[in-house]
What does this fold into?
Amino acid sequence: MDWGKALRDFRARTRVNQKNLAEQLGISQPQVSRIEAGTATPHPDILSSIRALIERPGNRSLFDGFLTTIRFNPHVACLVQPDIDTVRYVALSQGFREHPQFRQIDVGQTVRKAVSRNGEALIMETLRSGIFDGEVLAIDALWKASIDEQVNYWHGILTPIRSDAGGWYVHCEMAPLAAAEYQTKLQLRDTPLQLHRLGSGSPSAPAV
It folds into this structure.
């Protein structure tokens, strides 16, 4: 962990100055300054104090709380971030980890585009949609994926989230569908991906 950045982010969230932070950690203000500047490495005892302070529920960032919400979610959900021409998993829900289709997936892995042509198209259209530039409020998506000759059908809502550090992520909450239900929903729309944009009264299709 970048402890200097962690302390700077903590002070920005809590509006604590270096002197008050030093008092909470039991060190001097110059020590805090050097840690934040990256010119000093905290002693293990100090690291323990920093971690305990930052991870205290009342001191955690909203984004950290959101990550915890995802991890304990019993439904199928995940958080991803863009990674060149694909996306990478950042957080996985309990329901996601327990679903047979996703048991081999772990945090840090990229989404497997080769799973199915439909899945690859979903990823590429999502990346091109503008969901990572603040123009898209949400994407309502239907897709199917084949794993070991088993086809799974999904309805998901993809929502862009911005971290405290300014990075863009997408939260995906998914519900499994029966094949007939998937086909029925697909027939009621023009495209598998419906984009909800800022200032738009109705969903639109992704730009080609």
In short: Helices lie at 3-14, 18-25, 29-37, 44-55, 62-71, 94-98, 117-128, 179-187. The chain has two domains: 3-59, 64-197. The mean pLDDT is 86. The longest strand covers residues 150-162.
